[in-house]
Amino acid sequence: MDLSVLGAGSWGTTLAILLAEKGHRVKLWAHRPEFAEQLRRDRENTSYLKGSPFPPLLEVEFDLSRSVSDASMIVTAVPSQALRETARLFSSLPLEGRIVVNVAKGIEVGSGKRMSEVLADELPSLLPSQVAALYGPSHAEEVARSQPTTVVASSSSAATAESVQEVFHTGMFRVYVNTDIVGVEVAGSVKNIIAIAAGISDGIGFGDNAKAAIITRGMAEISRLALKLGGDPMTISGLSGIGDLVVTCLSHHSRNRFVGEEIGRGRTLDDIVTHMNMVAEGVLTSRAVYELSSSLGVDMPITRAVYEMLFEGKAAEEAILDLMTREPKPERD
After folding, report:
1. Which single residue of 68, 185, 197, 287 has CA 20 to 30 Å from 25?
2. Domain check: are 159 and 276 in the same one?
3. pTM of the prediction?
4. 111-128 per-position pLDDT tens digit
5. Identified catalytic residue from 191, 211, 228, 314
6. How many structural domains is the chain composed of?
7. Which string of DSSP letters, residue by residue, matches 14-39?
8. Residue 134 DSSP class
C-alpha cells in the first residue's frame, strides 16, 4: 500500500518506520523544510528518534500534497492542537475511499472536540466510517526497539478498524479492534492529565499509595466523561484506558509524567515547556477538558486540580490538600 504519515516527531517517525519495514511504501511529512532536508540527508531522525535508521521504502516529504496524493491511508501524527491546521492543508484533495488514522491524543482547546471531530470539521468529504484512531500504551522508544506493544484501532466502522489492524499489525505490534471511538479518544486523551497528576505526586515526594489513588480515581473521571459524551465506560478498562493510563503514569518515557514531576519539585510550567523538545499533550488538554467538563457538569476533581496548578498558579501541596479534604462520598459516585 501507499501510506502517508503526517508529522515527523518520535511517534510519527516510529510508525513510518514500522509500516515501511512491513513492506508498505511510506511518505513521512515534516512540517519544516529544513527538518525534512535533514531527515533526507541522515536517513534517521536524530532529533526525536536517534538510532532508528529509515528503511528503503520510507521517503521524506515537505510538500503535503505530494505526501498524501497517492496514499490510501493517511496517518495524522501531528500534536493534537495542530491537527486542525494540518487537516485544512489537504481538505481540498479527494478523499473518497481513503482512511484517515489519527494517532495524536488530545482534546482541542476552545472547541472541546475530540480529534475525530476536528477531522470531520476540516475534511467535509470524509465520512465518519473513514476515520480511525490508533491508541494504547505505546511509547515510541519501545516500539522503535521492537519491544512487545499492544494497541487498539478504533472506528465507528468495524471494517475500517479491521483495515487499520491489518496494515499496522506485526509480530511485536499487536493491534486489537474497537468500535467505540468516543471512549477510546476520551480515555487516550484524559489519561495524559492524570499522568501529570501522578508526576506531581512523585515530585512532591508522596508514595505509591498516593499514585495508586490518582490512577484509580483518574479512571473514574475518564469513565464519567466518556459516558457523558456517548462512549462505553467498559472501554476504559481496555488498552486505551487503563492500559495507556498505567504506562503513562509510571513510565520514565512519559513526557506528561515528567512535566508533573517537575511541577511538584517547584519549577514553573513555562520553564519546563521551554526546555522540552517534544510536546506534552496533557498540558493543553487539561485546559480543554477542564472547560469541557465544567460546561457539561461532569465532576473531574483531579483534572480541575491539574488545571489550577498549571494555569492558575495554585501550589501543588494546596491542590493535593484540597483533593484529600473534599466531602466524603461513596466510591461509585
Report:
1. 185
2. no
3. 0.95
4. 999 999 999 999 999 999
5. 191
6. 2
7. HHHHHHHHTT-EEEEE-SSHHHHHHH
8. E
